Amino acid sequence: MESVSTTRMSSKGQVVIPENIRKQLNLKTGAQFVVLGENDVIILKSIAVPSMDEFDELIASARRQGKEAQIKNTDIREAVSAVRGMKK
Description:
Layout: H1 19-25, E1 32-38, E2 41-47, H2 52-68, H3 73-86
Antiparallel strand pairs: 1-2
């Protein structure tokens, strides 16, 4: 399936993702994207809420990395307090 198409931007800034690209990437109504822009390049990266299994894996990985780095719960609380104190 071809992965190159053209599109136009509407007066409201809306861009239609061509049907062949939507089908190829299995994009559905309501899909969310991160939009990055620099110079004449725009990148849309689809994002999705992780499943509970993926979330559990992320938490387990973060805990392993924290343990390897010898980070303690008190270190985390202090960091959060410091950042909260910076907000105005």
